[in-house]
Amino acid sequence: MGYLGLNDLIKRALEEDVGYGDITTYHLIPREQRARGLFVAKTPGIVAGIKVSRAVFNHIDTASEFEIIKRDGEEIQAGDVIAMVRGSARTLLTGERVALNFLQRLSGIATKTHRLVEMIASSHAQILDTRKTTPGLRVLEKYAVRIGGGRNHRYGLFDGAMIKDNHIRAVGSITKAVATLREKIPITVKIEVEVETLEQLREALEAQADIIMLDNMDVTMIKQAVQAAAGRAILEASGGINESNLVEVAGTGVDFISIGALTHSAPSLDISFDFGEANL
After folding, report:
1. Tell me, what CATH number does 196's domain have?
2. Is residue 2 very low, low, confident or very high in pLDDT (cuts 50, 70, 90)?
3. Model-level pTM?
C-alpha cells in the first residue's frame, strides 16, 4: 500500500510506546544478539496491514529483514505464519507491540468486512464504511475495508457533499440546501442528502439529489423508498444495520449499505509474535 503519511504515523506510534527507550530490553539484551520473530494467526481471518508491520521494524532498524508470507487480502487459518522478521533482538522486542497493534487492528477490520460482504454476495447492494474511524488511522482503516471487499464512503468533509439533518435544520429545507450547493460546488461533485422519512425522500428526489441516505429506516420503509425512487437516485441504507438484518436490508434493492461498525467495533484479529533464536 502507498500512504505518504505512514512514516509519521509509525513514528508517533513508536514514540507513544517506546518513549525514551525500551528500558527492559536495553538492560537485558546484548546489542549483538540476533533473533527471529514469527507473526502467527491464532484465529481465521483476512490479512491487512502486513506492510505497515514491516515498516515498523524498518523504522527502528533498516537492517532488519522482513519476509511476507501471507499478503494483504489472503485468508488465513489458525496456526498460519503470516510473516517472519529477522534482525537485532533488541529491534524485534522493541517493535513487536506496535507492529502487532497495526496488523491486528487492520486485519480485524478486513475480516469483519469480508464476512459482511460475503453475506450479501448474491444481492445488488454493496457494503460501505463511514467516517466513524479511529482518529489518525482513517486512511489505514479505510484501506482495510477495501482489502475486506468493501467500498469507501467519503474520506472526510472535503471530498464529498453530504447534507445531513443539522444542515437541513440550519438552512431551512432540503430543496434550498441542494440548490445552494449546486451553485457553489464543482459539477463533478455528487450531492448526497440524509433523509429520515418518505416525505423527505420525495423532496430530495424533486431537488435532484444524486445520492439519498435512508437513515435508520426499517426494512418496510426502505422497500417503500426504493419503490418511490424508482432509480432516480442512488440509495444508501444506514443506521442500525448489523449481521441480524443485513441480508434483509440488502434484499430491498438499495444500492449501498453503510456500516459504522466496520471500523468502530471490529474486534482485532488474534495474532501472536513468536520470538526465538535467529538460527531457528
Report:
1. 3.20.20.70
2. low
3. 0.95
